[in-house]
Amino acid sequence: MEATVALGGNPNSGKTTLFNGLTGSRQHVGNYPGVTVDKKEGIYAYNGYKMHIVDLPGTYSLTAYSEEEVVARDFLVSEKPEVTIDIVDASNLERNLYLTVQLLELGVPSCVALNMMDVAKNRGIEIDTKKLSDLLAVPVLPVIARTGQGRQELMDSAAEVAKTKQKQEPLEISYGQDLDGVIRQMQDDIEKNRFMTECYPSRWIAIKYLENDEQILKKGQEANPSLAARLEKKVEKISHHLQRTLDTYPEAMIADYRYGYISSLLRQDDVFHQKYDKNRL
Ligand code: GDP
Ligand code: K
Ligand code: MG
Hints:
Blueprint: E1 2-9, H1 15-23, E2 27-31, E3 38-46, E4 49-55, H2 67-79, E5 83-89, H3 93-106, E6 110-115, H4 117-122, E7 125-127, H5 129-136, E8 140-142, H6 151-164, H7 176-192, H8 202-210, H9 214-223, H10 225-246, H11 250-267, E9 272-274
Parallel strand pairs: 1-4, 1-5, 5-6, 6-8
Antiparallel strand pairs: 2-3, 3-4, 7-9
Helix pairs in contact: 3-11, 7-8, 7-10, 9-10
Residues 15-16, 58 line the site of magnesium ion.
Domain FeoB-type G: 2-164
Protein name: Ferrous iron transport protein B
Binding site for GTP: 9-16, 34-38, 55-58, 115-118
């Protein structure tokens, strides 16, 4: 059996370290078509399973704000890897989960590698991986990529996700009353017309319109110009409303709610706990 396994995560989360640990010398560097971003691929043999490991460019987000972000999400959407390992720096958990939430909203089958557990421990950070896994509805595995600790368990979990071939239900988080209403209306229109829904979840498309995602706007105009115009009009209207009433924009509001979702998630049942900060003692 074969499977494609993508490694995603923020820059400096330890992707390359994990990639090298898994693939050793069986790797090569190529290019993504049309862009200058490096594409590193390698093979990892797992219990008779041939895993093609792809080190995605490091990104903080999955909106089309940079070439890296477009490359990463295009790969996920078009190559449909059986599983994406989302490498999270445990010593910077809250910030790193911003990308995790976006991977979950995109609905790609994934598991979270909670890396840098040694660094986190030294800083007095305790993370309840079981609770975090329950709340996010994805496997969460603690690892230390630098030493290889936890790697076997991580790959067991990744293989399990790959084997089930189940479509991951996209995570739905609330963006507040104003936006949620608009998102639902846009979603209805998107679903009724099957507007790019073979590639993306309908809610995700609506959110990208609100975030003013250039690539999705362009694809939308090509796919169905009149529907695209209708969605753009809706976005314009809610933008004006938010500016007038709250002096904010949809993009800013979406980012605020995502961060809010993450911080309340970490406060729930002591998922995250910092006993002390070694640097401050
Ligand atoms: P990338 O940007 O995601 O590819 O991250 P790298 O693999 O280049 O790692 C960034 C830095 O973190 C490097 O100096 C690694 O040696 C270090 N690093 C990676 N994983 C761990 C880990 O689990 N513990 C510690 N202490 N350092 C790590
Ligand atoms: K570095
Ligand atoms: Mg790297």
